[in-house]
Design a protein that fits this description.
3-stranded antiparallel beta sheet; alpha+beta
Length: 286
């Protein structure tokens, strides 16, 4: 929405008996003060009454119309400011302060016509942050943050997996499993792709959505259809044999597993067997 329409202010000397030269000096002085006070455009001219008497000058002040930032653009600026305040590398990955500012302007301009489009906004923010070349400076959507906070607080009832979207296939894959967690005990391994949760296909879903579907009340069941990575086939068979369970074969070459949710203790440091090359792909736990 516009910050304000163009405003015009007319200032006329209060002494009508001043001569024209004095009035012009007064107007010029006033104009100089206004220039110092505010970046407004000014126009100095005389006025003529209906009887032909010159009563000027007056100062016409124009406040240029401007558009406020959209909610999405404001978010881009807020993220930029916070990173600008906290980023350790003062060179901003050799961009320099001006180059880093330009990244902000580029991001703001890129979503000028995308008001209300959160997806475009988040993409612009991530593109801006990628220019810093720092894998630890990342943007989380509210959903991603809630998922991360839920796990970090502990007491999460789930199956003990870390998930991430594979940029090559677009599917949600398991990065790692919590030792002795329901998933690890039930035969889920790092590299497996999650095809279904409780009968619902997960194609095109985010890691956060799949993780959310896996979480629930401790002691309840969750049915999964997973496709084991080719290198995991022997290990999956061994895990099934050790647990005394055998998953049934499902469609799309997957295996159906029924797991019981439990309170999972997340260790602060875990090692993943699978490397997914996607700087933007968020990790979610379930």
């Amino acid at each position: 929405m516009p910050l304000g329409e163009t405003n015009v202010f007319v200032v006329v000397p209060i002494a009508p008996f001043w001569d024209r030269a004095l009035k012009r000096q007064f107007g010029a002085a006033l104009a100089s003060l206004l220039v110092v006070a505010s970046p407004l455009s000014l126009r100095l001219q005389d006025t003529t009454t209906s009887t032909g008497v010159v009563e000027g000058p007056f100062v016409e002040v124009h406040r240029p119309s401007a558009s406020a930032l959209t909610e999405e653009q404001a978010l881009v600026v807020d993220v930029w400011r916070e990173v600008n305040r906290q980023f350790v590398d003062g060179t901003f990955n050799n961009l320099g302060s001006e180059g880093w500012k330009k990244k902000k302007l580029d991001a703001v301009k890129s979503i000028a016509a995308s008001e209300g489009d959160k997806t475009a906004c988040y993409a612009a923010i991530r593109t801006m942050l990628q220019s810093l070349g720092d894998p630890y400076t990342r943007f989380l959507t509210p959903e991603q943050y809630d998922a991360l906070a839920s796990v970090a607080k502990g007491g999460t009832a789930g199956i003990g997996v870390q998930l991430q979207v594979d940029p090559n296939s677009g599917g949600v894959v398991v990065l790692s499993t919590v030792t002795n967690g329901p998933a690890a005990s039930g035969g889920v391994l790092g590299g497996d792709e999650v095809l279904e949760v409780d009968g619902d296909a997960m194609g095109g879903a985010t890691a956060e959505l799949v993780a959310a579907r896996m979480r629930g009340t401790a002691g309840t069941k969750v049915d999964l259809l997973v496709r084991h990575h080719p290198t995991n086939q022997p290990a999956a068979a061994a895990a099934a044999g050790k647990s005394g369970k055998s998953g049934s074969q499902g469609g799309a070459g997957g295996e159906r597993l029924t797991l019981t949710r439990a309170t999972v203790k997340v260790t602060p440091i875990t090692v993943s067997r699978v490397v997914v090359e996607a700087a933007d792909s968020a990790v979610a736990s379930g």
